[in-house]
Amino acid sequence: MTRVSRLLVSVICLTMLLVAGTQAFAGGSSEAGTASGPVTVNVAFPNNPISQALAKLTAEKYKAPGVTVNLAVLPENDLRQKLTTEASTGGTTYDIFVIGPYEAQTWAKNGWLSDMEPYFKALSPDKLAWYDRPDQIQGMVQSLAQNGDSYAMPFYGESSFIMYNKDLFAAKGLTMPLHPTWDQIYDLAKKINDPANGIVGMTMRGAPGWGMSGAPFVTMVNAFGGRFYDMNWHATVDTPEQRAAWEMYKKILRDAGQKDILSYTYNECIALMKSGKCGIYYDATSIAPPLEAADSPVRGKVGYAFAPTEKLQKNTAWLWNWAMGLNPKSSDAKKKAAFDYILWATSKDYVKMSLEMDPSGASTPPASRSSTYTLPAYAAVPYAKITLETLQNIDFNHPTLQPVPYHGLQYIAIPEFADIGTKMTQNLADYVVDKISLDQALKNTQQVFDQAAKDGGYQK
Amino acid sequence: MKSNTHGWSFVLPAMIVVAVMTQVPFVMTLIYSTLRWNLARPDLPIKFVGLQNYIRILSVPNFPQVPEFYSTLWQTIILTASSLVLCTVFGFLLSVLLDNKIPGVNVARTLILGPFFVMSTVTGVIWKTTIFNTTFGWYGVLAKTFGITSVDLLSYYPLPVIIFLFSWQWMPFFVLVILAGLQGIPLDLTDSMRIDGTNWLQSTFQVKLPLIANHLRIAVMLGLIFIVKEFALILVTTAGGPGTRSYTLPYEVYMTVFNASDVGRAGALAVMTVAVTLLAVNILYRSINKRRTAY
Fold first, then answer.
1. Average pLDDT taken over every residue of chain A
2. Shortest Cα–Cα distance, B261 to chain A (Å)
3. First to last CA, chain A
4. Could you give the angle at which helices B105-113 and B68-98 cross, rounded to 10 degrees?
5. What ipTM is given for this predicted complex?
6. How far apart are CA B40 and CA A303, in angstroms?
7. Res. A24: pLDDT tops 60
8. SS3 B36
9. How far apart are CA A375 and CA A349, in angstroms?
10. Quick check: B160 pLDDT over 70?
């Protein structure tokens, strides 16, 4: 090797070392910087009006020295998939995981969420009194806890109920019972349905996905007395009770529902209901606020009734909340900044702030705090009383008529449900648009549920 | 001999870089495909299961009921083959049209290339929400105006709709390649055709088409590689549905790993997808090599 070549090699090696060193120090300084310097907290929320309001208020009102909150809003299915991958692979794209009780239970067990109790213990008494933990709706808090420790804080919660267009009902001389059955709902929807005038009798989520069509559908199965597993974890999908629920779901949507059944997520359902051309809508209680928003064409025209029953006479609604938990893989400084942000976003002050911004209550997180319902502006909204009553009567641990080995009202709280629940809704979609028979749909779903119980080691 | 070893030492670093960059992900996928590994169940140990993931995907336990893999494979073949045929036929005809020297032809060429530059997700969202929606979309509005009952095309005809969208998006690519071929035909040849008195049909299909056959084959081969892995358009339009009626192999891999969190099964599916694609590309490549045309 000539001298020039040696020199060249030395220069290249030195340059590479310098670059590597700079990278290492840059990495190190960013961690160090998080301790005292600027910190960026990344968080993603499901796309809905309440999340959009949070994004707006965060940008305008959240002031924490040296902390920037990057808030993204994603479609619900995408958010779930992204966060599950992130948590299971130890990613740090998001510092706050916005999840529901389904994820919280499993993730806490898997170590994918930080225990929040040490952070609460470190708070000053004044700050603790300001946050007022006893004011949070305890059912919501418990659904996010493991052995008494909270792993996420509820941002807003929801149950499910019936929303109906009072004008369309009055025009046809119909009355919605306060506690309707699914048979009554079907009859009413058929009477309201008027395709010649563009009136849809009833809308429900039709897009497949365990959190999409799966949510109303599983509560329907519960109402008809169905269950997904017996106490020995043998699948019980192919039963008369389930069959009745599958038939009812199809009957309602095919005889009186929207045309693009399978394209409808709750966003399309809301748009249809808001257009004033839909009679009945069964979905989350958190959907009522946008219907009553100042700019909503159906404001004041929507009536509310409890979730439909059938064989099961109570507890046929669902329970869900969107809660914020800490990513255990984020740096300590980020976790502390994220925890402070969570306190702000789930505080009583935030509830008041959102009501000041939008007095209609459409942007206010419901069902997270009891005090929300005592605020005059919120107590006056037409859905407040029925929402609170529904939430108070929900039994998360006894979802079905017959005993089951699982928890969860609109889902089964096992990690496999994301997959098998989605497959169930795919079979449901196939059945609804006549691609397969009911026998085939039930048989396919039965096999999927049985296989999951075997693979997951639930069946003994 | 010594100089040969010396030469290898220069090539070796580049070979290592290329091997690492291109083959390591595939080797990792091969390894994953032999494991029982569910990301959502960290309590269950990751276990080597050999070919069990493959066997489970390929087995037909309830004959004559066809397992999901075979219907997905068939749908992938139908989607890809139909899109390629449409892209080739209409791409060729459009290219012939654009090969004329007429006023505004450059503007027309630019406009026709438009869909190729639109992202798949954007294409999907635009067609799904503003065109195909039976209530709010143009299709719904037009159908209502003319008193026709609109049908939810995405639910009832998912495969034809996706084939149409794939063709809409990828045809411009075919036009680009075929047009380059047409413009490469020597002028003296086209002059000879004119002097010999060929009509349009003869000159287009008996002279020009054989001359650009290689361009067509290359367009089809590249189109095959691009279209078979197309995934975003399916995600935003039908999300694989109704049921699994518009699943393709790449979409099934995505759902298996991101929805079911089953790394082992997703790995096996991915390996089989690569194998099927390589086989198809290899057949096309051999056909190109066999029938080289020169002018």
1. 88
2. 8
3. 70
4. 170
5. 0.71
6. 41
7. no
8. strand
9. 12
10. yes
- Least Cα distance to A180 among A199, A198, A202, A158 occurs for A202
Please write the tens of the pLDDT for every residue from A394-412. 887 788 999 999 988 999 9
Judge whether A209 is closer than 8 Å to chain B, CB to CB.
yes
Query: So what's the pLDDT on residue B2?
Result: 54
User: How does strand A153-158 pair with strand A160-165?
Assistant: unpaired
Please name each of the domains of chain B with its CATH number. 67-294 (1.10.3720.10)
- For B83-122, write each residue's pLDDT tens digit: 999 999 999 999 999 998 888 888 998 899 889 989 999 9
Q: How far is A94 from chain B (nearest CA, A)?
A: 17
Strands A320-326, A67-74: parallel, antiparallel or unpaired by DSSP? unpaired
Classified as helix, coil or strand, B33 is coil
Q: Is B37 helix (H, G, I), strand (E, B) or coil?
A: coil
Q: Is the pLDDT assigned to residue A171 strictly greater than 80?
A: yes
Beta carbon pairs, A and B, within 8 Å: 98
Three-state SS sequence of chain A: CCHHHHHHHHHHHHHHHHHHHHHHHHHHHHHHHHHHCCEEEEEEEECCHHHHHHHHHHHHHCCCCCEEEEEEEECHHHHHHHHHHHHHCCCCCCCEEEECHHHHHHHHHHCCCCCCHHHHHCCCHHHHHHHCHHHECHHHHHCCEECCEECCEEEEEECEEEEEEHHHHHHCCCCCCCCCEHHHHHHHHHHHCEHHHCEEEEECCCCCCCCCCHHHHHHHHHHCCCCCECCCCCECCCCHHHHHHHHHHHHHHHHHCCCCHHHCCHHHHHHHHHCCCEEEEEEEHHHHHHHCCCCCCCCCCEEEEECCECCCCCCCCCCEEEEEEECCCCCHHHHHHHHHHHHHHCCHHHHHHHHHHCCCCCCCCCCCEHHHHHCHHHHCCCCHHHHHHHHHCCCCCCCCCCCCCCCCCCCCCCCCHHHHHHHHHHHHHHHHCCCCCHHHHHHHHHHHHHHHHHHCCCCC
pTM of the model: 0.77
> CA A260 to CA B154: how far, in whole Å?
8
Going by DSSP bridges, is the β-strand pair A149-150/A145-146 parallel, antiparallel, or unpaired? antiparallel
Evaluate whether A39 touches A66 at the Cβ level (below 8 Å): yes
Comparing A182 with A358, the larger pLDDT belongs to A182
Residue A333: other Cβ atoms inside 10 A: 20
Among all residues of chain B, which has the CA nearest to that of A107?
Answer: B40
- DSSP strand pairing (A160-165 vs A278-284): antiparallel
Across chain B, where does the E strand assignment appear?
35-36, 47-48
Which residues of chain B make contact with A261, given a CB cutoff of 8 A? 152, 155
Three-state DSSP class for residue B148: coil
Residues of A with Cβ-Cβ distance to B152 under 8 angstroms: 259-263
d(CA B206, CA A83): 57
Asked if A37 and A67 touch (Cβ cutoff 8 Å), the reply is no
* Alpha carbon distance A343, B191 (integer Å): 80
Q: Does A84 touch chain B (CB under 8 A)?
A: yes
- Report d(CA A156, CA A267) in Å as an integer: 18
Q: What pLDDT, on the 0 to 100 scale, is given for residue B294?
A: 52
- Give me the residue from B155, B244, B255 closest to A263, CB to CB: B155
Q: CB of A289 within 8 A of CB of A362? A: yes
Locus of tokens 């090696």: A13
For residue A348, which phi and psi values (nearest 5 degrees)? Answer: -65, -35
Q: Are B172 and B89 in contact (CB under 8 A)?
A: no
**For residues A23-52, b (16+ Cβ closer than 10 Å) or e, as one string?**
eeeeeeeeeeebeeeebebbbbbbbbbbbe
Chain B: give the shortest CA distance to residue A55, in Å: 24
Separation of alpha carbons A69 and A50, rounded Å: 17
CA distance A352 to A126: 19
